[in-house]
Design goal:
The protein is an alpha/beta fold and 309 residues long. The protein has 3 domains: 82 residues, Arc Repressor Mutant, subunit A, CATH 1.10.10.10; 105 residues, 3-Layer(aba) Sandwich (D-Maltodextrin-Binding Protein, domain 2); 101 residues, D-Maltodextrin-Binding Protein, domain 2, CATH 3.40.190.10. The chain is built from 12 helices and 11 strands. The protein is elongated and about 75 Å long. α1 crosses α4. β8, α8 and β9 form a beta-alpha-beta unit. The termini are far apart. The strands form 3 sheets. A 5-stranded mixed sheet has the order 4-3-5-11-6, covered by helices on one side. It has a 4-stranded mixed sheet with strand order 8-9-7-10. A two-stranded antiparallel sheet has the order 1-2. Keywords: DNA-binding, Transcription, Transcription regulation. GO terms for molecular function: DNA binding.
Length: 309
């Protein structure tokens, strides 16, 4: 049964029997027999089969996440028995968005490795969403609204935005006293349409619709936005996790201080750590996610720094 479930998941991922047969170094007929036996066992067809394509049936789509959960629970139980009281060891693979990873994941990994000296880590920093199964990743840190999936997601923090500018810019252009004043200022914006959570929206302003701010500098790179603000090119609307150090040092000034310390507005995305059930490194993944959550804190440390003393 376990081999049949593993084969079913592999075929669903690959989209054909031949690729799975090559992966398992067996005949295609061996793969099809396992699928036939599984379909007979559960009493339903799992794939639409034709000479040109192979696709999951409705029953197959419903069964796929359950099959992964079954193997995931089994892997967790097996690893817990094997590990016993032994010290965790082995390789952990982690992926995270570039800017967030450099600022927050690297430090957490450093303390994690000091705590577990027999664990090794491969960290991949990239802004593209990684398929954990295809890329063989144990943990992914993701910022944004999570789509429905069979990934196990652990909330780490809620994104809070702050509107800020450098003292040099404010000395030259004047300080806006209300969000509506931003329409008369240079604002550092993204070069492509922003995600819904990152628009310049303020409660009770412009009928709660995004402000149509403009500016001469646009970029899709978060570090590029931060550096432009530090250079005095304009006002930036950015996540507190990105600029907490600059706000604390005075290199940037929060224009509407309550914005970063009150409850985040509805619709803002969250920061999550996700893992795929059934990976052989399940225990190490859970250990790191728990460690990362502890390092960030129930109220993220970067938001605590912005709260008035």
């Amino acid at each position: 049964m376990i081999e049949a479930l593993e084969t079913f998941i592999a075929v669903a991922s690959a989209g054909n029997f031949s690729a799975v047969a090559r992966q398992q170094d067996v005949a295609v007929s061996s793969v099809t027999r396992k699928i036939d036996a599984l379909e007979a066992e559960i009493g339903s067809r799992l794939f639409h089969r034709s000479p040109r394509r192979l696709a999951l049936t409705d029953a197959g789509q419903q069964f796929l996440p359950r099959a992964r959960n079954i193997l995931g629970e089994l892997a967790e139980a097996r690893e817990a028995i094997v590990a016993g009281d032994a010290e965790p060891r082995g390789l952990l693979t982690v992926t995270a968005p570039t800017a967030f990873g450099r600022r927050h994941v690297v430090d957490a990994l450093a303390s994690f490795l000091r705590r577990y000296p027999d664990i090794e880590v491969d960290l991949h920093l990239q802004d593209q969403v990684v398929d954990l199964s295809e890329q063989r990743m144990d943990v992914a840190v993701r910022i944004g609204l999570l789509p429905d999936s069979d990934l196990h997601a652990t909330p780490l923090a809620q994104v809070r935005l702050v509107t800020c500018a450098s003292p040099a810019y404010l000395a030259r252009a004047g300080r806006p006293h209300a969000p509506e004043d931003l329409l008369r200022h240079d604002c550092i914006t993204v070069a492509t349409p922003p995600a819904p959570g990152f628009v310049w929206r303020y409660a009770g302003v412009n009928r709660n619709q995004p402000l149509p701010v403009r500016g001469r500098y646009r970029t899709d790179d978060k570090d590029g936005m931060l550096q432009a603000a530090l250079q005095g090119l304009g006002i930036v609307h950015i996540a507190t996790w990105m600029v907490c150090d600059q706000l604390r040092s005075g290199e940037l000034v929060a224009l509407f201080p309550d914005e970063a310390t009150t409850s985040p507005a509805p619709g803002l995305p969250g920061i999550h750590a996700v893992r795929l059930r059934g990976r052989s490194h399940e225990t190490r993944a859970r250990l790191f996610i728990d460690h990362l959550r502890s390092e960030i804190g129930s109220t993220p440390w970067w938001d605590l720094q912005l709260q008035p003393a």
